[in-house]
Specification:
By secondary structure, the protein is mainly α. The protein has helices at about 40-50, 90-115, 120-125, 135-165, 170-195, 200-225, 230-235, 240-270, 275-305, 310-335, 355-360, 365-380, 385-390, 405-410, 415-445, 445-470, 475-505, 515-535, 545-565, 570-575; strands at about 1-5, 15-20, 25-30, 65, 75, 85, 85-90. It is globular and about 75 Å long. InterPro entries: Ferroportin-1, MFS_trans_sf.
Length: about 575
């Protein structure tokens, strides 16, 4: 067998095979001229004279390479008299290689046919196993340290201001400014968090929050040393203005940190396609927040009962400074134990475009553009009905533990210990809901578990409002039954709080998690502010039934909207929740 290779132009190269009677099997490499363009012998000789006959050949296959000077007998002569090198091959090696390739192909076929298929039980085990369990535990520890200080300060700040001045106006004004800061600055902070590396941005934001808390402590201690004045003059004191501003910064920072952990970090550490593990992680984070809320309030209350206010504030400041290095170290450890999963990809970091706009444009214009962009992305999210249902629950500021319910129960003449017990029971039911929600996700799936929580919440509140309108709350037994219904309804509310959070985690892209999450928090704060404004207008306790009815309508609307969304799942919804066996 002879292989002939043309030495003409690259586009005219071709192979021809021809039989030759040789003493042994050999491949002969020789130049040919294209048939459509005959060449003269002079031109052929000139071209072949410049041809270098040396080449690199795999010596494992081609074992004997001879030139025209070494073996004259096996040299083929072209028509023009040029000599061509002859390559001798060992046929046994070629046969062995062919058999080896066949054996490898057979092995691959065998490997593909013997791949194991996971059973349903094994798939459930994987779904319940976090992708990065060590990093998740480090995140729990970081949230525990940070939430303990934050919840302690959330209780200590209004209590300390109330001890300085007996009016509720300073606390109400600070709360209102904090909500305005969240509504206006939430999308801007979320956009910044989405466009910078996760770990450095989180640590910087926590440092800002701690600095704001420490400055608030200093302002309150300074205000405590002054003589009390009227509420109107109290609000215009420089130290109170600074306190209100840094309080708004502290609240905005805290909400942004919570969104980063609950909407972004925990998804990466637990795994988006591991619904049970993600539900358990969300439940643990909710338990940490609720327990820190209970322990933080109790701790500062105990300190306040034993020491003076200034001493208690100094102890709180010491806890803040002590928690700062712990949270920063645990945040770094979380990323290290998870093999750097929190490191943001380069293509998602627009550090060249967005930060430069902060330098060249007005900060107000950038903030307005961020708010506009946040609303645009919020409306375009694939799980918008679930998010709207979550926001509608924030309209319920009456049938829940809070200032309005406390004022109503006080007007009804209930013992303060009963009112405190009501708030404590609501908190413990919220902790129980975190255990129930994970089992609901496991047995019903994510979407149906959310519907079950909302329907349960709406049903019990409907019964509670019916008891109120029956007109027998002046008696002790009906009002206890009314409170029991409200307490039990918190089980459905907190279940959807955990499950709805997981739905949003699954449906929102990681590159927009902070932007959409902070925008959602802004919308929820706006909803809560609207209801508080209605309560200010209708401030008589006799209108409590009207406010309770408005709260009930919002909860029923949330359940109806979510169930309608669940009845007609879209293709995007099926794709996002394809891992849910109960969709």
């Amino acid at each position: 067998m002879v292989v002939v290779v043309s030495n003409a132009q690259p586009w005219s190269a071709f192979l021809t095979l021809r039989q030759a009677h040789l003493t042994s099997s050999s491949f002969i490499i020789r130049p040919l001229t294209p048939r459509f363009r005959p060449l003269t012998p002079r031109f052929t000789t000139q071209r072949l004279g410049t041809l270098n006959t040396r080449c690199s050949i795999n010596t494992d296959i081609l074992t004997d390479i001879t030139t025209d000077q070494e073996v004259r007998d096996d040299v083929a002569t072209d028509d023009c008299g040029c000599t061509i090198p002859v390559l001798h091959l060992k046929s046994d090696i070629l046969e062995t290689e062919a058999l080896n390739l066949l054996a490898k192909g057979t092995f691959v076929d065998t490997l593909l046919t013997t791949l194991p298929v996971l059973s349903e039980e094994e798939q459930n085990i994987i779904a319940a196993t976090p992708a990065h369990p060590a990093g998740l535990y480090a995140l729990y520890a970081s949230c525990l340290a940070g939430s303990m200080v934050e919840q302690l300060w959330n209780f200590a700040s209004p209590a300390a201001i109330a001890l300085i001045h007996p009016s509720l106006l300073p606390v109400a004004l600070m709360g209102f400014l904090a909500k305005l800061a969240v509504i206006g600055g939430g999308p801007l902070v979320g956009k910044l968090m989405d466009h910078f590396p996760r770990v450095p941005a989180y640590n910087c934001l926590y440092i800002v929050q701690t600095a704001a808390q420490l400055m608030s402590v200093g302002m309150i201690i300074h205000g405590h040393t002054l003589h009390p004045t009227s509420a109107s003059s109290f609000l215009f004191r420089p130290w109170f203005i600074v306190l209100a501003l840094v309080g708004a910064v502290e609240r905005l920072s805290g909400l942004a940190l919570g969104v980063a952990v609950e909407r972004d970090w925990v998804v990466l550490l637990a795994g988006t396609n591991r619904p049970v593990a993600l539900a358990q992680a969300n439940a643990v984070l909710s338990r940490i927040n609720l327990l820190c809320e209970i322990v933080g309030a109790a701790l500062f209350g105990i300190l306040l009962s034993k020491y003076e206010l200034v001493v208690c504030l100094k102890i709180a400041a010491g806890l803040m400074m002590g928690a700062l290095p712990i949270v920063v170290s645990l945040t770094w450890l979380t990323n290290k134990l998870s093999s750097g999963v929190l490191d943001r990809a380069v293509e998602t970091c627009l550090s060249c475009s967005f930060p430069s706009s902060l330098k060249s444009e007005n900060i107000v214009g950038v903030g307005l553009e961020a708010i506009k962009h946040g609303w645009f992305e919020y409306i375009r999210q694939p799980v918008l009905p679930a998010s709207i249902a979550y926001v509608l629950l924030y309209f319920n500021v009456v049938l829940a533990p809070g200032g309005l319910m406390t004022a109503f129960l006080t007007q009804q003449g209930l013992n303060p210990s009963i009112i405190g017990g009501f708030s404590g029971l609501c908190a413990f039911v919220g902790v129980a809901a975190t255990f129930v929600s994970a089992k609901m996700v496991k047995h019903l799936g994510i979407l149906k578990a959310g519907a079950a929580g909302l329907v349960f919440h709406a049903s019990l509140l409907t019964t509670a409002v019916a008891v109120y309108w029956s007109g027998c709350l002046s008696q002790q037994t009906p009002i206890f039954f009314f409170l029991a219904l409200v307490v039990l309804s918190r089980l459905g509310h907190m279940s959807y709080d955990v499950i709805g959070q997981q739905i949003l985690q699954t449906g929102i892209p990681a590159s927009k998690a902070n932007l959409i999450g902070t925008t959602e928090v802004s919308v929820a704060s706006l909803a809560e502010s609207i209801m508080l404004g209605v309560a200010i207008v209708v401030n008589d306790v006799s209108h409590f039934g009207f406010l309770a009815t408005l709260s009930l309508v919002s909860v029923v609307g949330a359940a109806y909207l979510y169930c309608r969304w669940l009845e007609n799942p879209t293709d995007t919804q099926r794709t996002l929740f394809s891992f849910s066996p109960h969709l």
